[in-house]
Structures are given as C-alpha cells and as structure tokens.
Design goal:
The protein has 2 helices and 8 strands, in the order ααββββββββ. The chain is an alpha+beta fold.
C-alpha cells in the first residue's frame, strides 16, 4: 500500500472542513437581505430633496409598510408617498443591488401610476439614505433618516 504524504492530507482536510459549517445556515448575503428587509418594513424615510438648480430643500416622507424580496434582485416596496400635497399608497417593484454590505435601490424610467416616471439610485446605510433622482424635466438629490414606527 502506497503512503500519502502528510503535506497532502492537511490541505485536503481544511478544504473539506471549510464547507461543513455553512450547511443549513443562512449565507452572509441572506443575512444582509434579512436585515435590509427588517430595517425598512414598517419604517418611514424622513428627509429632504433638492430640485434642479433651485436653492433650498423640500421635505419628503415615504412610509414603507412592507418590503420583501420577490426573486433575484427584485424587491417589492409597499410605499405610502407623501410629497408636494400628494398622499398615495402604491406597490413599487424595485431592483436592489449590493455594494458589499450596502444596498442600493435602482429604478430607471419607472412609471409609477398617479405619480410619474422616475430614475433614481438610493443607498441605505446605518439608519440613513442618500441618493439622486430625476424625472422627465428635473432632478436632484435626496437624503434623510430611516425612522422605525
């Protein structure tokens, strides 16, 4: 019987053991996604937005009754939009991309019935959000806090 050198066994054992702890438990990405869902469901985004070259900021308020992952990068945001004298509740399917541990919602020329067509990129991190947005004729920045109810 031929002997296997000990130098071959140790790396093989390490490779075999590396996968053992991950079976059955959630992946790191699943943990991040769950935290994201929990942080936004039942929360209100309270902040400000700018419009074009105008100085000053306007208030915005988006109440998220529920945020859930549908499939792949698509998430459903049940949102109550309150801005400019409007108050409307709509389901909005959004793409969520990840930069490491930081989620970013993306929408490109998305028409929201009763609201308009918008493009946006908004990052969420440690209880805050910030990003850019644009409509057909104007755009600006948005930022604020995530407030749990």
């Amino acid at each position: 019987m031929k002997r296997v050198p000990l130098a071959w066994i140790a790396p093989a054992a390490l490779v075999a053991l590396a996968g053992c702890g991950s079976r059955g438990g959630p992946s790191a990405q699943q943990v991040l996604e769950k935290r994201f869902q929990e942080s936004l469901s039942g929360a209100t985004l309270v902040g400000h937005f700018t419009v074009g070259e105008r100085t000053g900021q306007s208030e915005e308020r988006y109440t998220l009754t529920k945020v859930s992952k549908l499939a792949g990068e698509t998430w459903l945001f049940q949102a109550r939009l309150q801005y400019g004298g409007r108050d409307l509740t709509v389901p909005i399917p959004l793409t969520v991309k990840w930069a490491g541990d930081t989620p970013m919602i993306t929408l490109t020329d998305l028409t929201i019935p009763g609201v308009g067509t918008y493009t946006a990129r908004v990052l969420f991190y440690r209880g805050q959000y910030a990003g850019t947005w644009s409509g057909r004729k104007f755009g600006g920045q948005m930022f604020g806090k995530i407030v749990k109810q």
